[in-house]
């Protein structure tokens, strides 16, 4: 098989097993642009994103192996068996005809594997298996046939695997109902010249209407079910002091925020997310369960406890620094030189309440800006602010403060956000 | 089983050589080995046309049966392309016999539009676009957003994401696929608005 074809198939196999990463998937999709075989196959798989394709492929490989062994070395080996089967078939057919026995009862006890054999025979000797009774008879007959050449014990195990039915899908019925609402898909206009009719495909047993599962998955319902909610909380030490710079993250995700100088945080989290993880050097990690509509007051235990940290790390994604107030977007985010602690210190010591500001104007300025590769900040945008004088002061603080750094390996500008609080 | 996979992995024989050997000997192990190289493709194609995974599984085996005879009697130049036509026709014939409407869902270019978005983000003068993408990302439902971020921005594999989120692999695949589609729709709408 040509080199690039085998590459593509390797990628497809990685896709099926879930080992593939974004760049590789892009490679696969680019391959599909010029390769209708691959394109159709990917289309097929993507119609059923939730199905366990890998398990299905393993079953297919098992069947294929079993089938090819039975097929063995071509005509010479299987021809006598076919002849014998055909003869027996005729005989049984004659007997059935003689006693005028309606066929059916005998075949019911057959195993799935035995039921499959007639298909093979039909293909080889199609004339023999036109009538339904005869088909049953074939099955009955084959049961009395001596077992196929002795196979290794592993083969028996494989048989169990291959005959196992796919697990029932509880959602199937719902999907079928929904599929009625799905928009009509484009008709295939040209059907290519047909290959010869085969007699065994009836056994494929396609009874369900063409229910596009996608109809369910793509329905807007899914999107409206899940809603984000605003979580508000305060993190303190056991003695009641606020903890600044603690990271609050959703387990395994890139979303998160950092507590401000008052130990407070605000985080928009998916409604279905039930846990938050809190990291702060010098404190033990905390995993807390979010309860509906409650402000979260969290007390961190002082002192790093390796055991806790290890356990948390195992269960969750590794802790990552986050910009204060950021719903982290590109990962990892840019950072001020010396870290956020240094920036915070700088802001605290240099913050000047603007003279021009109306008395009593206070609150938090939320800024977005671009971090250039050289470390300069530009394109300041005020996302929220109690008033213009405070916004200008916040921008001044950031511009005069420590330079920023892009994450390693990144040479193009990135967006970042930061909050500066003003209290009088 | 092991032997089978070992054979499947052996790539030193070309399709043509394997096929020729099968045609001479009628040894089905050779044919199964050849077919096994493309079994993933065939199964996917069957699923596209027959819609049902179980039906596609059966059809994949049925196509092999068809191959047993056809590969022997035909002059086959490029096995891979030939197999594609055979598989597709098999499915279309099956649909016709069942008198089902032959419908195929096309989802053109889902992936590529996002990919190109992804690439443009690397360019320095594309902050606006980045902001638009961010905006669209935030409109995704949380599962999709989370999975997309982990897949595209942190370069996790589907499997890793599934493990971290304690989700089934299929669910993760579904979230990423749907998230990608929603992103594309959102970005296209934004671009349309910009042009007007």
Short description:
The complex is a heterodimer of chains A (424) and B (196). Chain A contains 14 helices and 12 strands. Chain A is α+β, with helices and mostly antiparallel strands and 424 residues long.
Q: How would you state the average pLDDT of chain A, rounded?
A: 64
Largest Cβ-defined interface: A-B, 115 and 115 residues
Shape of chain B: elongated
Number of β-strand runs of chain A: 12
Helix content class of chain B = over 70%
Radius of gyration of chain A: 34 Å
CATH topology of the largest domain in chain B: Rna Polymerase Sigma Factor, Chain: A
The percent range for strand residues of chain A is: 15-25%
Q: How far is it from the N-terminal to the C-terminal residue of chain A, by CA?
A: 75 Å
Main sheet characteristics of chain A: 4 strands, antiparallel
Number of discrete helical segments of chain A: 14
Measured on Cα atoms, how large is the radius of gyration of chain B? 22 Å
Please write the string of helix (H) and strand (E) elements of chain B. Answer: HHHHHHHHHH
Strand content of chain B: under 5%
Number of helical segments with 4 or more residues of chain B: 10
State the shape of chain A. Answer: elongated
What would you say this structure looks like, in words?
The complex is a heterodimer of chains A (424) and B (196). Helices cover 41% and strands 16% of the residues of chain A. Chain A has 14 helices and twelve strands. In chain A, the strands form four sheets. A four-stranded antiparallel beta sheet of chain A has the order 3-2-5-6, with no helix packed on it. Chain A has a three-stranded mixed beta sheet with strand order 4-1-7, with no helix packed on it. In chain A, strands 10-9-12 form a three-stranded antiparallel beta sheet, with helices on one face. In chain A, α6 packs across α7. In chain A, 33% of the residues are buried. The model of chain A is unreliable at 73-77, 102-226 and 305-331 (pLDDT under 50). Chain B has 196 residues and is an all-alpha fold. Chain B folds into two domains: 1-105, RNA polymerase sigma factor, region 2, helix turn helix motif (Rna Polymerase Sigma Factor, Chain: A), CATH 1.10.1740; 108-196, Orthogonal Bundle (Arc Repressor Mutant, subunit A). Chain B is 78% helix and 0% strand. Chain B contains ten helices and no strands. In chain B, α3 crosses α4 and α8 crosses α10. The chains are: A alpha+beta (424), B mainly alpha (196).
């Amino acid at each position: 098989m040509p080199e690039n074809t085998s590459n593509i198939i390797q990628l497809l196999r990685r896709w099926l097993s879930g080992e593939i990463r974004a760049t590789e998937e892009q490679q696969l999709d680019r391959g599909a642009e010029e390769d209708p075989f691959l394109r159709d196959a990917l289309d097929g798989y993507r119609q059923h994103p939730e199905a366990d394709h890998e398990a299905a492929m393993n079953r297919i490989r098992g069947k294929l192996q079993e089938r090819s062994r039975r097929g063995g070395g071509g005509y010479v080996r299987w021809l006598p068996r076919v002849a014998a089967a055909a003869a027996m078939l005729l005989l049984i057919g004659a007997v059935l005809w003689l006693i005028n026995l309606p066929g059916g009862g005998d075949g019911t006890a057959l195993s799935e594997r035995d039921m499959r054999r007639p298909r093979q025979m039909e293909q080889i000797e199609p004339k023999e298996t036109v009538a339904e009774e005869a088909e049953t008879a074939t099955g009955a007959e084959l049961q009395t046939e001596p077992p196929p050449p002795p196979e290794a014990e592993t083969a028996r195990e494989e048989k169990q695997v291959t005959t196992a039915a796919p697990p029932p899908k509880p959602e199937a019925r719902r999907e079928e109902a929904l599929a009625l609402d799905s928009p009509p898909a484009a008709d295939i206009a040209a059907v290519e010249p047909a290959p010869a009719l085969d007699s065994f495909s009836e056994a494929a047993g396609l009874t369900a209407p063409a229910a596009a599962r996608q109809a369910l998955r793509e329905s807007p319902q899914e999107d409206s079910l899940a809603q984000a909610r605003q979580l508000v909380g305060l993190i303190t030490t056991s003695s009641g002091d606020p903890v600044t710079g603690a990271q609050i993250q959703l387990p395994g995700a890139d979303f998160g925020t950092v507590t401000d100088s008052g130990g407070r945080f605000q985080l928009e989290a998916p409604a279905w997310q039930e846990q938050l993880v809190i990291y702060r050097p010098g404190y033990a990690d905390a995993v807390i369960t979010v309860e509906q509509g409650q402000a979260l007051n969290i007390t961190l235990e002082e002192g790093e406890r390796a055991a806790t940290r290890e356990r948390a790390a195992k269960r969750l994604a590794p802790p990552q620094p986050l910009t204060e107030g950021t719903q982290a977007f590109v990962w990892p985010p840019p950072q001020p030189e010396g870290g956020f602690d240094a920036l915070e210190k700088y802001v605290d010591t240099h913050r000047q309440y603007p003279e021009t500001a109306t008395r009593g104007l206070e609150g938090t300025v939320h800024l977005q800006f671009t971090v250039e590769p050289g470390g300069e900040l530009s394109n300041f945008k005020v996302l929220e602010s109690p008033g213009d004088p405070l916004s200008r002061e916040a921008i001044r603080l950031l511009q005069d403060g420590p330079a920023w750094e892009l994450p390693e390996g990144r040479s193009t500008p990135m967006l970042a956000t930061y909050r500066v609080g003003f209290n009088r | 089983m092991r032997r089978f996979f070992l054979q499947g992995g052996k790539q030193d024989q070309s399709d043509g050589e394997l096929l020729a050997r099968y045609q001479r000997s009628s040894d089905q192990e050779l044919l199964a080995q050849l077919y096994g190289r493309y079994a993933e493709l065939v199964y996917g194609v069957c699923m596209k046309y027959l819609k049902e995974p179980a039906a596609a599984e059966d059809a994949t085996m049925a196509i092999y049966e068809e191959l047993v005879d056809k590969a022997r009697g035909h002059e086959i130049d490029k096995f891979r392309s030939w197999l594609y036509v055979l598989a597709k026709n098999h499915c279309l014939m099956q649909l016709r016999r069942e008198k089902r409407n032959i419908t195929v869902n096309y989802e053109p270019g889902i992936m590529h539009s996002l990919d190109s978005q992804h690439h443009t983000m690397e360019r320095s003068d594309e902050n606006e676009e980045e902001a638009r993408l961010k905006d669209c990302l935030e409109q995704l439902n949380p599962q999709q957003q989370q999975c997309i971020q982990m897949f595209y921005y942190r370069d996790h594999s589907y499997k890793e994401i599934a493990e971290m989120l304690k989700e089934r692999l299929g669910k993760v695949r579904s979230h990423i696929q749907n998230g990608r589609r929603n992103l594309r729709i959102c970005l296209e709408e934004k671009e349309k608005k910009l042009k007007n």
